Predict the 3D structure of the following.
Amino acid sequence: MIQLEQTFMNFLLHHQEKHNRTYHFLVLMDAVVSAAKHIQHYYLTGALRGNLGLAGDVNVQGEDVMRMDQIAQEITIQYLKASERVIHAVSEESEGIIPINPDGRYFFYFDPLDGSSNIPHGLPIGFLFGIAKRNLEGPEDGHLRAGKDYIAAGMFVIPTGMFTLGLRGAGTWQFHIDETMNFVKPTRMNLPDEAKTWELSFNESNRYTYSERVQKWIMENESKYAFRYLGALAGDFHRVLANGGMFMYPAIVNHPNPKKNRPEGKLRLMYEGAVVAFMCREAGGTAVNEEGTPILDIQPAKHHQRTALYVGSKKLVEDIARVLRNTG
Ligand code: AHG
Ligand code: MN
Ligand code: MN
């Protein structure tokens, strides 16, 4: 028997049809998938073309820009423009809002290439995105949306060909690229309830810079779980989605050099934290910030707002959230 492999586009077509939705989201997602494939191609051929090094610029976050950061940004914007479905985009690589098409229907928040420290080693990196819909009736209500207002959020783990997409109220789905470069095998993700497969993921070398209460929680809990850390959110979160447990990037408040403290956290809310929090919710998990507030409830005040992040299995995240809220 020849086995049918359902492609991502076929899956999405059925989804849109079942929920009586328009084809606009399909057009946008086709562009996003093409951008990701294109970025993956550049990454896989990057060493040959000399694209795995620094670009010589510093970005809006004050970080060194890699050549691949620029390539991924350019590719994504070109595809977003061609889709004609996006009004504004917000990217880690651009200080201001990127106007795309005044008649566009969606806001697109993205990090075209996350986990840059893995680039020189050819190790997995991520492409993260969140999508919200503009107000179609009446005046535009702006693109600073909380994660709970996203309609979808997803990530590609490049160059492994893993693609995960959370759809509002319709679950988180994983696809894998096959040799024809199609994303196939839709698999619905549900965080396992059983603690026996759970993993903890955080930058262990930062541990003594966390608040005392977070350090204490780690000390009391770490030996119960396996520890994994790749240093690229998409890959680390991918494992948590499959195995359960928690990824965390706590606030840095006890750094020996106080200038290196990051009381707001390191990760960006709109295109990193809220993206994984959205996929996590659709897979039965949850996410909070340093105050124990749900990440998806945070109303951003600016595009590049940072957040501390605790994301993963409900029981585990709620346990640390009690400590963060000082109620545990
Ligand atoms: P960037 O956006 O600068 O590439 O940062 C990567 C993020 C995220 O992917 C990862 O989880 C985290 O930063 C790693 O940071 P550390 O190197 O501090 O552990
Ligand atoms: Mn990033
Ligand atoms: Mn980036």
